[in-house]
Specification:
This protein is of the alpha+beta class. Helix content is 35%, strand content 21%.
Length: 394
């Protein structure tokens, strides 16, 4: 198989710790599938809604029980306004602040339950043919509490990317995520960020597999109104980067089973974004190595599509989690992998693939899940910043 990264960088990727996979039970009788939630009524039809908060006449969010669980202790926040908004950056600052307060409160709730919190979401609104990292195109964030048992299993079973098959390695830690960490470090100006603090690329295993940012005030950083501004800023930088790469190095349009093709000849210096020389050379190596494997031609089997057929446009996943007493935001660029912020979790510095629907939850487990969610709603009402989550426009 063609090596998409230079050897030294590929060696770093091969050394990242992973688990393939961590099982999650499902609801008895539930058949997993993608249900498009084009209307607010669809949100109520396909999920159990615990709360529905309006941000504006056409914007709001719902706190729901996920019907296809990624973990026992879990909650989902879904954009539930009449206007369809796929990204956090597409929402008002008040929505972003509400999300941050809910996340900070969820972390506090997890501590009361002796769980490790993980908050994640994905952005991939334009992939409609093959498996996407954002199956439901409305913005939605996953709130998961990982148990001591799950964390112990991850530590025991963790291996290196180099021990996986090429197909599994690309799904779980794809090359574009490593390249994305380098490019993000170049295009994101740390002085423009108000809350997030970039971790130098390649300085840690997680800063190799993702673009890693420290949240200096821990989970409370998410409740800072400037957090949303940071996410908007980073998205705009990634959007500009992606568009410049396509403009300078590719030809053709993206559509249903159609993708731009890398030009036979392209000049990486013409990519009009501020990349270091080493990053630009790594990007050129990656793009040239893509040819001629990536071809248009029609539906592919899932294992092949997620290995050789790219997503339709800019796609990335964000995961916020704890490691060694610090809270970090991890941003993974996806080009091939269909595993987004829910399909991939980061637990104690290990990248963990989640496998849903492995067995059914017992009656007592369903009761524990329901109690966890109900207790969280009570805690949210009592949170010192509850007004920003429950009455966002006040």
């Amino acid at each position: 198989m063609t090596q998409l990264l230079p050897s030294a960088l590929e060696g770093r990727r091969q050394d990242v710790r992973v688990v393939d996979s961590l099982a999650a039970k499902g609801y008895p009788g539930y058949v997993s599938g993608v249900q498009r939630m084009g209307t607010v009524s669809d949100v109520y039809g396909w999920t159990k809604v615990h709360a529905h908060i309006n941000v504006s006449p056409d914007e709001g969010y719902a706190l729901t029980d996920k019907r296809s669980p990624h973990a026992l202790y879990e909650l989902m926040l879904m954009s539930a306004g009449t206007t369809h908004r796929p990204g956090l950056h597409d929402h008002a600052p008040e929505f972003g602040t509400a999300l941050g307060v809910v996340a900070a409160c969820f972390a506090e709730h997890c501590r009361a339950y002796e769980l490790s919190p993980v908050v994640s979401w994905s952005y991939d609104p334009n992939t409609l043919d093959r498996e996407s990292i954002q199956g439901e195109k409305r913005f939605h964030a996953h709130f998961v509490g990982r148990t001591h048992k799950e964390r112990a299993e991850v530590e025991e079973r963790a291996t290196r990317v180099g021990g996986l098959s090429a197909v599994r390695a690309r799904r779980i830690v794809e090359e574009a995520s490593v390249l994305g960490a380098l490019m993000s470090a170049d295009v994101v100006d740390r002085d423009a960020l108000r809350v997030l603090e970039p971790v130098p690329a390649l300085s840690t295993p997680m800063a190799t597999a993702t673009a890693q940012f420290l949240l200096p005030q821990g989970w409370e950083s998410l409740a800072n109104p400037e957090f949303h501004a940071d996410i908007v800023y980073i998205h705009r930088k990634l959007r500009r980067l992606y568009d410049e790469i396509i403009r300078a190095c590719a030809t053709g349009e993206s559509g249903v089973w159609q993708r731009p093709a890398i030009r036979e000849e392209f000049d990486p210096e013409s990519i009009d974004v501020p990349l270091r020389a080493t990053t630009r050379a790594t990007l050129a190596h990656y793009l040239r190595a893509l040819r001629p494997e990536i071809l248009d031609g029609g539906p592919l089997a899932r294992s092949r599509a997620t290995h050789v057929y790219p997503l339709a446009d800019l796609a990335y996943a964000i995961t916020i989690t704890e490691h060694e007493g610090q809270v970090y935001l991890h941003l993974r660029i996806n080009v091939f992998s269909d595993l987004g912020g829910a399909g991939i979790s980061i637990i104690d510095g290990v990248i963990v693939k989640t496998k849903k629907g492995v067995g059914d939850m017992r009656v007592d487990e369903i009761a524990a899940r329901s109690a966890f969610q109900a207790d969280f709603l009570r805690r949210l009402h009592l949170h010192p910043m509850a007004a920003r989550a429950l009455f966002p426009r006040l």
